[in-house]
Design brief:
Protein name: Sulfotransferase domain-containing protein
Strand order of the largest sheet: 2-1-3-4
Family: Belongs to the sulfotransferase 1 family.
Domain Sulfotransferase: 38-288
Largest sheet: 4 strands, parallel
Number of helices: 14
Bound molecules: adenosine-3'-5'-diphosphate
Mean pLDDT: 87
Structural class: alpha/beta
Keywords: Transferase
GO molecular function, one term: sulfotransferase activity
Shape: globular
Strand content: 5-15%
Length: 296
């Protein structure tokens, strides 16, 4: 269940290595066969790592800072997701949506590397990947609220933490997904960024991402871009905040723009919960060369 190439291979159970819910079968083959272009740009992140925030940044950098369109056209239509249309799970015609996009295409995915299209996993095509990472404690808390509000999870936070540790949550174990992508860093064009660094110095990350994409952000553009990307403004932006879906949620918060802070888990996690996650980090990341989250 926690397998990663870094630590000795997968435990092969079922077609999706126990990573995905069974409905994924509806799109597995189509995604595997999906044609890739070398100029595709992917944003990759385990769910609740700040993936959508990163997408919004990348979209503006690649679209001449078109704030008007960014406020009019929903992010899921500007920056489609490989495995879902953002509303229903795994029953969409992914190929049609993506094949009709203008190039270079901007595509988001939460998938484990083993589920990426064959043209990527076989190294036949070399798109760019911007990979966003976030500390496991805050991801776990954010996922709890996501499961509670959108997926009908009824248990306590403590119960959710146990499921999270066992990888029995939407899109499988955090550690496997993170390591599966990390393992590819020498074979593909990848930029790893951290949610925590975006919070600390967004301008620095914007410059880093732009340079990775061969773009520049004029300094006079920076204040407006940072303002557009701030938590408070994205929380109010209907093209970002999924407010059209809020009526379907049975929760008390919008899980897409909930709190937006670093260390939120400290107020609600017991020392035991934090200890379990840290122990799992130690177990899973030791010996993998993965260090990006370790200095927090
Ligand atoms: P919280 O639940 O901790 O608030 P993803 O897009 O990968 O699903 O990640 C969602 C998380 O990113 C949520 O975390 C959300 O609030 C946070 N987020 C979204 N936009 C943000 C922004 N502009 N600044 C900080 N955090 C943001």
């Amino acid at each position: 269940l926690y397998g990663s190439p870094s630590i000795g291979g997968f435990i092969e159970v079922g077609p999706f290595n126990n990573l995905m819910i069974s409905e994924y079968e509806n799109v597995y083959e189509e995604i595997k066969q999906f044609p890739i272009h070398d100029d595709d740009i992917f944003v990759v992140g385990y769910p609740k790592s700040g993936t959508r925030w990163t997408e919004e940044m990348v979209w503006l950098i690649c679209n001449d800072f078109n704030y008007g369109k960014a406020k009019e056209v929903d992010l899921i239509n500007r920056f489609p997701t490989l495995e879902t249309d953002g509303v229903s799970f795994y029953n969409i015609n992914v190929g049609k949506i993506l094949s009709e996009m203008e190039r270079p295409r901007l595509i988001k995915t939460h998938l484990h590397w083993s589920l990426f299209p064959n043209e990527i996993t076989s190294n036949a095509k070399k798109p760019k990947f911007i990979v966003v990472l976030r500390s496991v404690e805050d991801v776990c808390l954010s996922q709890f609220h996501h499961h509670r509000t959108t997926l009908g999870f009824k248990g306590s936070f403590e119960e959710f933490c146990k499921l999270f540790l066992a990888g029995k949550v939407l899109q499988g174990p955090y550690w496997s997904q993170v390591l599966s992508v990390w393992d590819q860093r020498e074979h593909h064009s990848m930029l790893f960024i951290r949610y925590e660094d975006m919070k600390k110095d967004l301008a620095a990350i914007i410059r880093q991402v732009a340079s990775f994409l061969g773009k520049t952000v004029p300094e006079e553009e920076m204040p407006r871009l940072i303002d557009h990307l701030s938590f408070d403004s994205l929380k109010k932006n209907p093209a970002f905040n999924h407010e059209d879906m809020l009526a379907q949620f049975n929760g008390d918060c919008n899980p897409f723009t909930r709190e937006g802070i670093v260390g939120g888990h400290k107020a609600v996690m017991t020392p035991e919960m934090i200890g379990n996650l840290k122990a799992m980090n130690e177990k899973m990341f030791r010996g993998t060369g993965f260090s990006l989250l370790n200095d927090e």
